[in-house]
Write a structure and sequence with these properties.
elongated, 919 residues, 30 helices, alpha+beta, 53% helix
Length: 919
């Protein structure tokens, strides 16, 4: 339907904008800077032309179009007559209408041409706009011009009088004012679009060029096929601790089959060191990154390297003892309170967050203030006259000023007129069949209805709310009364609708944010109407508008999000270097090699799993897509819309690490995002305005408004090649608030991998591994194993791979009455689409009957063990150490059971062959 309407508009505009199209082709190679200058000059030329045409005729021009009624026009003329030296002349009024028509034609044609020629030049770093949408944008000033010309013609017909006498013929006033308000609304939209275009062009012009090729990037090697993959799930510091213990067991388990009682002396001979892939999500990524960074990229050094993590049942030092730690477990124990590491510890971190959030909120409120302040002047102007200033006596005996709502014909006539205009095509529509005619009528109905609703809000609702809704009274007594009234009302609403509100909790955050911002808007409009207080001053408006516009051009919202702080704190604990004795110590984050340095490096290839935010739920039922950071490339797996009958998995959009890093900001910020710990920090962005599987609906906007933003805007693999950088700007901050994430935008908002799949299992299935060892420390409720079930479902939807786990295996995971599970691991079979199979060994962070007695005793005294909240990032040494031990013992038992099962199967197979040979 909408497409049919736009097609009709397109045919008309093809003729009108033919010269503009030719101009666009001539300016196709213009830079963003030239487009900015040209747009500014064109806009300035329109303003100068309007001033020149209407100079000296301003009063005649505005008075007639907003008179509304004959009586109101007489009152206005009397006001001018009472002012010496100011008069209204009939001849001047007619001349103003003719000149107004000329200006409207210039405005409409120039505005349409400006959009058609420069819009794509100014937004060149954004997604390619469809031609039909561009024509629709260009139609806005043309529509405003046609309405203005119609209004001026009707005004010329309606004007009567002579000399200093001006009057309107009967019934023309309501029509004129209705058209006038529509004209000014479209003119306002045109101005906003031009300003947005100029700001976008200035932003693009100031974007730096792409980074040079990274000399550190190795030659891309062919991806390894099949092999062994290990994945570590999300779960914060809890998951990092359990995963370290489990990885320690894999370090001490031989890769080659044989005597499993002999621990390998070299890392390269262990199951972990010889694995092909190491996939990780969120908290599990802290442990995986710590090990991978410590293991390094040097083949010769890796060949002689002993196991790095250490045995959690044989820790040689205590956290408070002096001396360097001898393994990763001891290092992490010493730095377990990673949020308190670094300069200033937690107090400085809290102060920094408060300052960043204050700046974030000031920018948001400043943007709203910039657009709402003029409405205060507007509702007090003669054109609306919706409020008057009245004096009142405060409780202290002083005189105060407040607004009083005034309701007149000039307010209700335009909404009524547009409502009637909307009703006419709607009634005609009832007698039409489905087709282009009905689509056109629907479009007219919708357009007129929008004008009716918008004019009713500005002319009636906004003045009434400004005068009657005020939670910030100037008088102290009134402040207490209003506070008490609102507290009582909120309490009553909560008591009555408690159950319903609890069920709708995901939507309440957006409601609270909208109400809070709405009250701020009313306060700004009131101050502007009264021209009082610092919010109502013109000087304040100019300063705030300039600051906000400057921020839109220069500021990067990632600079004041929590992501930078979070990554630095993680690096202070999990980024390590090894001395000649292979003992770890803290490595400066800036000295850590980039993720691309692990191309062809010894040991498993790291795969950091994140989530790419999406506005709508995809075919998998999650409002996010899988995004992976690998040494050779960064990839977004998006569902293919034109999936054929053969049922392929997903369409892969990848950027080589060379191209990805070229699009990152130059300097340390880009280098840190390109590192392994940078990717791990993104994967751990548990709190963000977009949380995929954990979507909080409108509450996402509340998180964005209060700077609860751990996600990062990174180059989008699905975007077209760029000539210049497209660093995120303040517009991206508003995308977070409104949940707008374009599939092909230059930047994609990357968050916690657990927002899509919390095990990292699906990414190993994409690699078609022969053996996958999954370490699960998810925070799902005991006995639900939700993370595993989600991974099984996604593996089938994304890759058409089936994971089969016997019923007896599932039963082994069910807890008994004492809370212990018979065993905390299961084995399954992976059936790939091509007919091959793989093995799954799943290990869960749960206390089982095979868990060492010391850990069982600790769990009996700590009922929350091992399922500590993900928000608890400050585990004690006892909690951390027992998680190490549980992870180590669980993985060791699982590996031993698997080895025994394989040996038994091999023996049975050999006996069967001997029996068959004897027969």
């Amino acid at each position: 339907m909408a497409a049919d309407q736009l097609t009709g508009i397109s045919k008309i505009l093809d003729v009108v904008l033919k010269p503009a199209r030719a101009a666009f082709e001539r300016t196709e190679r213009w830079s963003a800077l030239i487009a900015t200058i040209a747009s500014l000059l064109a806009g300035a030329a329109i303003m100068v032309t309007g001033f020149a045409l209407l100079h000296g005729l301003r009063d005649e021009y505005f008075t007639v179009q907003f008179a509304t009624t004959k009586d109101r026009l007489v009152e206005r003329i009397a006001e001018y007559a009472a002012d010496p030296g100011t008069t209204l002349a009939f001849d001047a009024a007619q001349q103003a209408q003719w000149r107004g028509m000329v200006f409207a034609a210039i405005w409409g044609l120039t505005g349409a041409a400006l959009f058609h020629v420069f819009w794509r030049r100014c937004w060149h770093v954004g997604p390619a706009i469809k031609p039909i949408v561009l024509k629709f944008i260009a139609a806005i000033p043309l529509a405003g011009a046609m309405i203005a010309i119609t209004e001026k013609i009707i005004t010329l017909v309606a004007l009567t009088g002579s000399g200093q006498t001006i009057a309107l013929r009967n019934s023309f006033g309501p029509v004129i004012v209705t058209l006038a308000w529509a004209k000014w609304v479209l003119a306002g939209f045109t101005v906003l679009l031009v300003v947005a275009m100029i700001v976008a062009a200035a932003t693009a012009a100031l974007q730096r060029g792409l980074r040079p090729d990274d000399p550190f990037v190795s030659t891309v090697v062919a991806p390894r096929s099949s092999g062994t993959g290990v994945c570590c799930s999300g779960g914060g510091i809890r998951a990092a601790s359990f995963s370290l213990g489990a990885l320690s067991a894999l370090e001490q388990w031989p890769a080659a089959p044989g005597d499993t009682t002999v621990r390998p002396s070299r890392l390269a001979d262990s199951m972990l060191g010889s694995a092909n892939y190491l996939s990780s999500v969120s908290g599990g990524g802290y442990a995986a990154s710590a090990w991978r960074i410590a293991a390094g990229t040097d083949n010769k050094r890796f060949a002689d390297m002993p196991p790095l993590i250490g045995d959690p049942f044989d820790l040689s030092t205590k956290p408070g003892e002096r001396g360097e730690p001898t393994n990763l477990l001891e290092h992490v124990r010493r730095h377990r309170s990673f949020l308190a590491t670094g300069r200033g510890g937690l107090p400085l971190a809290a102060i920094r967050y408060l300052l960043q959030t204050a700046f974030h909120m000031a920018l948001l409120l400043g943007f709203i203030y910039m657009f709402t302040w003029p409405f205060g002047l507007l509702i007090r102007s003669w054109a609306i006259g919706g409020v008057d200033i009245v004096d009142f006596a405060t409780s202290s005996g002083q005189t105060g000023h407040k607004l009083q709502f005034v309701f007149g014909a000039q307010q209700w006539i335009p909404p009524l007129g547009w409502s009637i205009a909307a009703a006419v095509p709607w009634l005609i529509r009832l007698g039409t069949k489905r087709g282009s005619v009905r689509s056109t009528l629907d479009g007219l109905t919708a357009g007129f209805a929008v004008l009716a609703t918008g004019s009713a809000f500005v002319l009636i609702a906004l003045p009434w709310m400004t005068a009657n809704i005020n939670i910030f009274p100037d008088d102290a007594t009134e402040q207490l009364q209003v506070t008490g009234m609102y507290a009582t009302a909120l309490t009553a609403v909560w008591q009555v609708g408690k159950r319903y509100l609890q069920r709708q909790a995901k939507y309440l955050g957006g409601v609270f944010l909208a109400v809070g911002l709405g009250l701020f808007v009313l306060r700004v409009v009131e101050e502007a109407s009264l021209q009082g207080g610092w919010l109502g001053r013109l000087s304040t408006y100019i300063i705030v508008s300039g600051a906000v516009t400057t921020a839109f051009v220069f500021a990067n919202p990632d600079k004041w999000s929590l992501s930078d702080f979070y990554r630095k704190r993680l690096a202070g604990t999990f980024v390590t270097k090894l001395d000649e004795n292979f003992h770890p110590s803290v490595l400066n984050e800036d000295q850590a090699p980039p993720l691309s340095a692990y191309i062809g490096a010894p040991g498993p290839e790291p795969i950091v799993c994140c989530a790419a935010s999406r506005q709508e739920e995809t075919e998998t039922g999650v409002a996010a897509l899988s995004m992976t950071f690998e040494p050779s490339q960064v990839t977004v797996h998006s569902w293919r819309a034109d999936d054929d009958a053969t049922g392929t998995e997903t369409a892969v959009k990848s950027l080589s690490h060379i191209e990805f890093k070229k699009r990152l900001p130059q300097g340390k910020q880009g280098d840190r995002l390109a590192s392994l710990i940078g990717a791990a920090a993104i994967s751990g962005a548990a709190v963000a305005p977009s949380m995929g599987r954990l979507n909080l609906k409108t509450t996402n906007a509340l998180l964005a408004a209060f700077n609860a933003r751990l996600g990062v805007w990174v180059p989008n693999p699905a975007s077209a090649p760029l000539e210049r950088m497209a660093a995120p700007r303040v517009i991206n901050m508003f995308k977070e608030i409104f949940g707008v994430y374009g599939n092909t935008d230059p930047n994609v908002y990357a968050t916690d991998g657990g927002h899509w799949e919390n095990l990292g299992l699906v990414e190993l299935i994409r690699k078609r591994c022969d053996l996958i060892i999954a370490i699960d420390t998810s925070g799902d409720l005991p006995g639900t194993y939700k993370a595993l079930k989600n991974a099984i479902a996604l593996a089938f939807l994304e890759c058409e791979a089936k994971i089969d786990i016997d019923e007896t295996e599932w039963e082994a995971l069910v807890a008994d009455e004492d809370g212990l599970v018979p065993r905390n691991f299961v084995r399954g079979t992976i059936r790939y689409l091509d007919g091959t199979t793989g093995e799954l060994l799943y290990v869960k962070a749960a206390v089982s009957r095979t868990t060492p007695l010391a850990v069982q005793r600790y769990a009996a005294g700590d009922r929350t063990f091992p399922n500590y909240s993900t928000a608890n990032q400050m585990l004690t040494d006892a909690q951390l150490t027992n998680l190490f031990k549980l992870g180590f013992a669980s993985m060791q038992t699982a590996l031993r059971t698997r080895a025994d099962s394989c040996a038994s199967a091999a023996t049975t197979s050999a006996s069967s062959r001997v029996s068959h040979a004897g027969a």
